Amino acid sequence: MGLKYREHWLNLIRPLFMKDADLSIVDLKEEYEVVVSWKLGTDPSRPSKRSKTIRIIVSEEAVEDYLKKSERQRENDDEKLVQFIKSNLENIDPNHDNPIHLPRPEAPPWIAGRDILNS
Question: With contact defined as beta carbons under 8 Å apart, do 38 and 21 qualify?
Answer without folding.
Answer: yes
